Amino acid sequence: MTTNDLSQLRDKIDEVNLQILELLNKRGEIVQEIGHVKEKQGIVRFDPVRERQSLDLIIENHDGPFELSTVQHIFKEIFKASLELQKDNHKKALLV
Amino acid sequence: MTTNDLSQLRDKIDEVNLQILELLNKRGEIVQEIGHVKEKQGIVRFDPVRERQSLDLIIENHDGPFELSTVQHIFKEIFKASLELQKDNHKKALLV
């Protein structure tokens, strides 16, 4: 292994980062759509049962090098950010 | 929009979650490889300049619904977890 290998591995990391970014934003868009549907139906935005189901599916499918607790922590941050996104949209809708 | 739409949107979210999970774990594997290279070369594990560069590339490419600060926060959590992964491997290597 040389410094060149290190550089190649770092390029791979950057590539994966951008793929994760793309998926995060795609996820954000779907979450916004869900927010609109819930708003129209008068459903409360946060659904702990649904969040638990999502997390369970992630746990079932996890087989990577990260600790399960780490993966759960990262996804909980993503869930929290998504909920904030719905709240922001709701505020904006009220201001229109 | 009906409850059925909501269910379809949730399925899409689950699909994206699993894609993010796959990428996270792929990223974890590359990070482990980087840890091995650094170990052999006697380079310190944490490189703030490199982390800044990674984050800058993410910022440049961000164009989704999330606030930039949110995206940065999520990636910093991923970076932190990756560093922990390298530390764990180092500890395990010392124990062998």
Describe this structure in words.
Two copies of one chain form a homodimer. With 96 residues, the first copy, chain A, is mainly α. Chain A has one domain: Chorismate mutase (Chorismate Mutase Domain, subunit A, Up-down Bundle), CATH 1.20.59.10. Chain A is 84% helix and 0% strand. Chain A has three helices and no strands. The first copy, chain A, has helices at 3-41, 48-61, 68-95. In chain A, helix 1 (3-41) packs across helix 3. Chain A is flat, with a radius of gyration of 18 Å. The N and C termini of chain A lie far apart (58 Å). The model of chain A has no long low-confidence stretch (mean pLDDT 90). At the A-B interface, helix 1, helix 2 and helix 3 of A face helix 1, helix 2 and helix 3 of B.
Low-pLDDT residue intervals, each spanning 5 or more residues of chain A: none
The biggest sheet of chain A, with number of strands, parallel, antiparallel or mixed sense and barrel status, is:
none
Count of separate DSSP helical elements of chain A: 3
The outline of chain A comes out as flat
Q: What is the subunit organization of this protein?
A: homodimer
Greatest chain-chain interface? A-B, 52 and 52 residues
In the CATH scheme, the class of chain A would be: Mainly Alpha
Number of strands of chain A: 0
For the record, the CATH architecture of chain A stands as Up-down Bundle
Protein name (chains A, B): Bifunctional 3-deoxy-7-phosphoheptulonate synthase/chorismate mutase
Organism (chains A, B): Virgibacillus kekensis
